[in-house]
Amino acid sequence: MLSRRWLLAIAAVAVLPLGACQVPAPAPTLPELTYAHLGPIRLDVARIEIVDDYLPPLRRPNVEHEFPIPPADAARRWVNDRLQAAGRQRTARFFIRTAAVVETKLDRRGGLAGAFTTDQSERYNATLEVALEIRSESGQREAYVEARSENTRTVSEKASINDRERVYFEMTEFLMKAVNAELEAQINQHFGRFRR
Questions:
Q1: What residue spans define the domains of the chain?
Q2: By three-state DSSP, how is residue 33 classified?
Q3: CA distance 63 to 44
Q4: What whole-number distance in Å separates Cα of residue 152 and Cα of residue 84?
């Protein structure tokens, strides 16, 4: 009889903490940003290099390091997915000039009006600027293109962490879509003799 009481007491103690725990909301399922489906851009170069000129501050007001896919990472993925070295000489260099996202706190209404309204609490300004050049074996620039994209979004004061992650993802997706379109157009226009 004593052992049965002990078992019931242990079971009660074991179940007690479970009732006090809150299950966190699952992380949002975000798609992977890839660009291979857009097809390769074959260049008459022997090598492709990525030069990351942007050094993220890793502190606010910059928040790009908090993105599930920071713009600089997406730009590097674009190079790996789309650009192909298909020559015997020359070097293509892809420069990440800027890949910044800056957060600005927005004013909220106070008093009675503030209690019954939902304000936008933060604004995010994102900028992605990249360039692509081809240099000869002697180091002379033979072709150059660049692209820049900007995106601004605001977030509600009631936005959850998952809501913000979704906004961050969509901002990177927007930046890369615009940069991809601009680079494609300029490469077609200015890199004609370097296409394979």
A1: 38-106+118-194
A2: coil
A3: 37
A4: 32
Separation of alpha carbons 196 and 192, rounded Å: 9
Whole-prediction pTM value?
0.82
The full length of the chain comes to 196
The tokens describing 89, both together, are 């000489």
3 state DSSP class of 60:
coil
* Residues contacting residue 171 through CB under 8 Å, at least 6 positions apart: 67, 71, 101, 124, 126, 151, 153
Helix ranges (DSSP H) in 40-196? 71-82, 111-115, 161-190
- Is the CATH code 3.30.160 the one for domain 38-106+118-194? yes
Helices (H), 29-97: 71-82
**pLDDT of 62-121, one tens digit each?**
999 999 999 999 999 999 999 999 999 999 999 999 999 999 999 876 766 556 666 789
Tell the residue number behind the tokens 């992380």, with chain if given.
27
**In the block, residue with structure tokens 């079971």:** 11
**Contact indicator for 99, 54 with CB cutoff of 8 Å:** yes
Element (H, E) at 21: none
